[in-house]
Amino acid sequence: MTHAILRIDASARRTGSISRGLLDRLIARYEAEGGAQVTTRDLADALPHIDETWIGANFTPAADRSPEQRARLALSDTLVAELQAADTVLIGLPIYNFGVPASLKAWIDLVARAGLTFRYTPDGPQGLLEGKRAVVAIASGGTEAFSSIDYATTHLKHVLGFLGIHDVQFIRADRAMSDMEATVQSANAAVDALSLAA
After folding, report:
1. Which listed residue, of 72, 92, 163, 176, carries a Cα 20 to 30 Å from 106's Cα?
2. pLDDT (tens digit, 9 = 90+) per residue, 81-128?
3. Are 129 and 162 contacting, i.e. CB atoms less than 8 angstroms apart?
4. 108 carries a ligand binding annotation
5. 66 has binding-site annotation
6. What EC number(s) does this enzyme carry (predicted)?
């Protein structure tokens, strides 16, 4: 059975990117071990930021939206559908200035939609994307992953959990500027050792 994968590249670099290289290696493993149907969303192709018009359209009941409002939400609808269709989400996460890239934050804002990817209940918000898995390939020059100055991994893990994706694993290629070769070698080994079973 083909495994549906959503690949999200958040690196602004299309060449020489550690996180992209790690996702390439992960995809190759999935393809070698039973096949994969891969949808790629490259965030180097900048996404628009949400604005007042988008928010107004999003909070208008679907049946009452004007053609202009439906058009304004079309990209967001597509991004949500990509998430809903995926069994596994692979995210390349470079840490920029201690946080997630602006392009990834824009993606988060476009997919976190009440009634589609989460809902409010008397017991608090509930994610609607349960049963999925996420693998995050972290790359940083100097920031240590999961340290007190890393605001990227905690943010992304919380957002994924908020949407219902609680099975989140991280591949670390952090502090690469200290020893690039050893860092990439270690991260590649972690990719090769990762269990692909959901």
Report:
1. 176
2. 999 999 999 999 999 999 999 999 999 999 999 999 999 999 999 999
3. no
4. no
5. no
6. 1.6.5.-, 1.7.1.17
Handedness of CA 168, 27, 152, 171 (dihedral sign): positive
Report how far residue 151's alpha carbon sits from residue 145's, in angstroms, rounded to the nearest whole number.
9
CB half-sphere exposure, 10, CA atoms < 13 A: 25
The residue type at 144: E
As given in the structure block, the two tokens for residue 25 are: 């290696």
Summarize pLDDT for 123-147 with one digit per residue, the tens: 999 999 999 999 999 999 999 999 9
More confident residue, 46 or 43: 43
Distance (Å, rounded) from C-alpha 5 to C-alpha 86?
A: 5
Does the annotation flag 195 for ligand binding? Answer: no
- Which band of pLDDT confidence, cut at 50, 70 and 90, is reported for residue 33? confident
Q: Does 17 carry a binding-site annotation?
A: yes
Query: 68, 35 in Cβ contact below 8 A?
Result: no
Token pair, residue 53, equals: 């018009």
Tell me the average pLDDT across 168-194: 95
Structure tokens at 83: 């998430």
Question: Sign of torsion, CA 111 146 169 39?
Answer: positive
Sheet with 167-173: list strands edge to edge.
36-42, 3-9, 88-94, 133-139, 167-173
